[in-house]
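okkk here we go again. third time trying to get the flavin-adenine dinucleotide bound version out, last two times i messed up the smiles copy paste (missing a bracket lol). double checked this time i swear
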Amino acid sequence: MTAPTIDRPVLTDATLDEFARRAPVYDRENRFFSDDFEELRKSGYLKMAIPKELGGLGMNLSEVCEQQRRLARRSPATALATNMHIYWTGVAADMRRMGDPSLEWLLKEAADGEVFAAGHGERGNDFPLFLSTASAQRADGGYRFTGRKMFGSLTPVWTRLGLHAMDTSDPDQPTIVHAFMPRDTSGYTIEETWDTLGMRATRSDDTILDGAFIPDRYIARVLPAGTADLFVLAIFAWAEPTFGSIYMGIADRARELAVAEAQKKTSLALSRSMAYHPGIQNAMAEMVFATEAASAHVRKVASDWSAGVDYGHDWPMHLVAAKHNAVEAAKLAVDRAMSISGGGGMFKGSELERLYRDVRCGGFHPANSILAPEIVGKIALGVDLGEQPRWG
Ligand SMILES: Cc1cc2nc3c(=O)[nH]c(=O)nc-3n(C[C@H](O)[C@H](O)[C@H](O)COP(=O)(O)OP(=O)(O)OC[C@H]3O[C@@H](n4cnc5c(N)ncnc54)[C@H](O)[C@@H]3O)c2cc1C
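finally!!
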């Protein structure tokens, strides 16, 4: 299988080869992809979703998905962590295109080299963005934030942490405050908690907010808890297909490795390679059935968003379904690739061994694999996501 070609690749094949060479080292040493990050910075990759007139490459969601898939094929953790920055710029760019320039400052700052990260992950909250275990308290000229944010990819390099917290000063009408915290803010600490199964080079450490003051100019939205507007929808629109594409990139690589392994592997009982074994052919077919469908699905949803198709209230269903299918197909692909490879795939030096761990992380991203069926099922049934009680 040849690697998919894309229009306007931002990174050269030689750069991707370097990323692929470093990926196992970052993984083994559990350290941030610093050298990759500098390459991404230099190449303009971090600016690909910023409109051209503001100094970026002007790529839409569809184009970004293809770039991210290509990068993830060689270095999944690098693509995943970088995605947090890229999706913020995509959100701001699309809002501006749709007539809401309220985040134009973000695009200008990103064009000037600021690095954006996502501080949404929280313990005890499976409904990120809509609810929060962190608190926001109104203060003179801004808000004070207190709480613990976990899984913060890009922790070593972010300069603006996009986060949300709940303002319960009116208990009858709690609001969610969305903000971007500059790195030089006082009142927060970073705790290095990141020692995980997969996606290790993302360095997704915890940030503990202890009354961190964020001025009004960095407050992006104040919305009634449990509700969404264009800002929240655009986060889902950029996060879900890009996550899905990253995991499809892992599947692309698993397929390549499986083909190479099947063609190389022999058995005393066969006259030719294991590619002629019906069991291997079946496993390969299962991989192709799942990934071809999921790949088409995630591409369609990304291109519909980029083309401005109006699915109205059904958008979250389409976005979440595409990400869910892509991740599940990628998990299956890596699993079958491991079966085809045989025991060699489980050795620490095997790329498949790392992909097997990395791909397992896909179901934890919002909407996680438990929440996704709830969102999709409720929207398909006409049940409002904010309705209480949540079930029954
Ligand atoms: C590789 C990777 C990178 C990610 N990067 C980002 C990112 O950059 N930004 C972002 O916002 N999100 C990120 N996500 C995080 C994601 O949004 C989820 O928050 C994350 O997957 C954990 O969600 P969970 O609800 O399954 O965690 P849980 O399993 O519920 O929680 C994880 C931790 O919290 C503890 N815990 C769980 N519940 C409680 C409780 N009630 N009280 C106290 N402790 C508790 C657990 O013991 C565990 O240590 C990333 C996820 C992955 C897999």
